[in-house]
Amino acid sequence: MRLDKRIALITGGARGIGRGIAEHYAREGAWVAVADLDGDAATDTARAIEAAGGTAMGLAMDVTDEQAVDRGVAEIVNQWGGLHIALANAGIQHIDPLDKLAFADWQKVMRVHLDGAFLVTRAALQQMYAGDGGVMLYMGSVHSLEASPLKAPYVAAKHGMLGLCRAVAKEGASHGVRSNIICPGFVRTPLVDKQIPEQAKELGISEQEVISNVMLKNTVDGEFTTVEDVSELAVHLAAFPSAALTGQSVVVSHGWHMQ
Ligand code: NAD
């Protein structure tokens, strides 16, 4: 097992990509704290992991709430004695052209991705620095590295998370902390399913055209990236044994973006 008894926090872990990673981490032996805005769904996911033989706890946590993040991390440390891996994965999307974008919508996307990633980072680093170091991971996107129309706040926030990841790699190194950002292409989760009709309406094309001409147009094979693809990479990055791999963005996108 590649993550035997490693204690991991995954935000936005109740569904989608976060849930897939939580389940994969548990299969690799990690003890997984599933944190989510939807506390009941986080508990359900943790129970499902335990039913499959893993170790998990569910936490209600809004990553934009400073006290909630600090409280959640304290609970993990109180119950399990430390924190080795933290993945800032919670995220939302908002589709609008820039000239019609409400300030409140811009701020909401920034808060969840950037403020959330910062608060999780700070709370996790305090524990990792007090222990033997650890691994910070961020759920970026191909949009950490390039832009698409109608997604300005998301693109800006995901680029910001790349900057945070790199800052953590520099500051954390002397404390034994490594930091990397995962950059997936499109994965069929509730987040993506919601934006297909929204983009179709905004662009005046069919939903099938959004999939083939917008989302998958620049992939090498017209395929969606899967939750399993992303979770395998997340295990690999968490288990990687040295700081040879730190401050990196790793793209998993069927060739949509090549760096
Ligand atoms: P999803 O909508 O299926 O799941 C997101 C989860 O985050 C949900 O459980 C939701 O309750 C939780 N969440 C939202 N706001 C939160 C908050 N304030 N505090 C705590 N939890 C919160 O989305 P997903 O597709 O699984 O996306 C997960 C991450 O992967 C996001 O950061 C997203 O930007 C990123 N990503 C997704 C894709 C994709 O194609 N699906 C591609 C690249 C990156």
What are the key terms here?
259 residues, alpha/beta, Rossmann fold, 2 domains, 7-stranded parallel sheet, 8 helices, 7 strands, globular, binds nicotinamide-adenine-dinucleotide, 3-hydroxybutyrate dehydrogenase, SDR, Sc_DH/Rdtase_CS, NAD(P)-bd_dom_sf
SSE topology:
Layout: E1 7-11, H1 16-27, E2 31-36, H2 39-51, E3 55-60, H3 66-80, E4 85-88, H4 103-130, E5 134-139, H5 152-172, E6 177-184, H6 190-203, H7 207-215, H8 227-239, E7 248-252
Parallel strand pairs: 1-2, 1-4, 2-3, 4-5, 5-6, 6-7
Bound molecules: nicotinamide-adenine-dinucleotide (NAD).
CATH architecture tag of the largest domain: 3-Layer(aba) Sandwich
Mean pLDDT score = 98
- Strands, total number: 7
Q: How far is it from the N-terminal to the C-terminal residue, by CA?
A: 31 Å
Query: Percent of residues in helical segments?
Result: 40-55%
Shape: globular
User: Radius of gyration, rounded?
Assistant: 18 Å
Assigned CATH class of the largest domain: Alpha Beta
Spans of at least 5 consecutive residues whose pLDDT stays below 50 are none
What is the H/E string?
Answer: EHEHEHEHEHEHHHE
Count of helical stretches? 8
Quote the CATH topology of the largest domain. Rossmann fold
User: Can you tell me the number of structural domains?
Assistant: 2
Biggest beta sheet attributes: 7 strands, parallel
CATH superfamily of the largest domain: NAD(P)-binding Rossmann-like Domain
Fraction in beta strands: 15-25%
Small molecules (ligands, ions, cofactors) in the structure:
nicotinamide-adenine-dinucleotide
Neighbour order of strands in the largest sheet: 3-2-1-4-5-6-7
Q: Structural class per helix/strand content? A: alpha/beta
